[in-house]
Each structure stands twice: as C-alpha cells, then as structure tokens.
C-alpha cells in the first residue's frame, strides 16, 4: 500500500465486485503505524492487517456490520462500519 492516497489506499487497486473496507489510523491528525483488527458482529476476531507507513489499511470482507479495532503504540480505538456487498466503506480511525 505504499504510495496510497491520503484518506485510504488508492481505490483504483480495489478488486472489482469485492466488498472493501479501508481507511487510515491517525493520532492528533498524524498517521500512526500499528495493526487493525476486523471483528464480526459478535465481536469474534476475523482478520488483522498491519497499517502502512502512512497509517492506511484495507480488508476484503463479506457484507454486514463490522468492528475495526486499531492497535497502535499507546492506544486503541474501535469503529463500527457497515459494508455493502460490492461496495467501498472508507473509515477514519483516530486514536
């Protein structure tokens, strides 16, 4: 994801027809590196990805309600997102 645009990875690289959740993790407006976990509607762990050097992340997931949990040095933050089938959900996570 190096070189991705501010606000999320470059949307032109999204797989057509895939349900995509992507965004950026920041602290005080600056990108933060760490990990983002994808939890299902029951809170069950589904996946985890490292953020890029610019705090960006991307998941390909099923449609539904998900929780994103940012895990970065010195803090965590959760955000709920509803992913639509074949759609793109952009999420900003401030820690």
From TrEMBL:
Q: Please provide, alphabetically and separated by semicolons, the GO molecular function terms listed in this UniProt record.
A: alpha-amylase activity; carbohydrate binding
Write down the SUPFAM superfamilies for this protein, in alphabetical order: Starch-binding domain-like (SSF49452)
Where in this protein does the record put region Disordered?
1-27
Q: Report any one BP term from Gene Ontology.
A: carbohydrate metabolic process
Q: What Pfam families does this protein's entry cite?
A: DUF1416 (PF07210)
Q: Where are the transmembrane segments?
A: none
- The enzyme's first-digit EC class, named in words, is hydrolase
Catalysed reaction, written as an equation: Endohydrolysis of (1->4)-alpha-D-glucosidic linkages in polysaccharides containing three or more (1->4)-alpha-linked D-glucose units
Enzyme Commission designation:
3.2.1.1
Name assigned to this protein = alpha-amylase
């Amino acid at each position: 994801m190096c070189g991705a645009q501010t606000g999320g990875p470059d949307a032109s690289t999204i797989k057509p027809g895939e349900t995509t959740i992507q965004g950026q993790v920041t602290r005080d407006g600056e990108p933060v590196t760490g990990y983002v976990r994808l939890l299902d509607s029951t809170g069950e762990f589904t996946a985890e990805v490292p953020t890029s050097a610019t705090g960006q992340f991307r998941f390909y997931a099923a449609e539904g309600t998900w929780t994103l949990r940012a895990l970065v040095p010195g803090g965590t933050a959760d955000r709920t997102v509803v992913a639509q089938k074949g759609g793109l959900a952009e999420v900003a996570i401030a820690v």
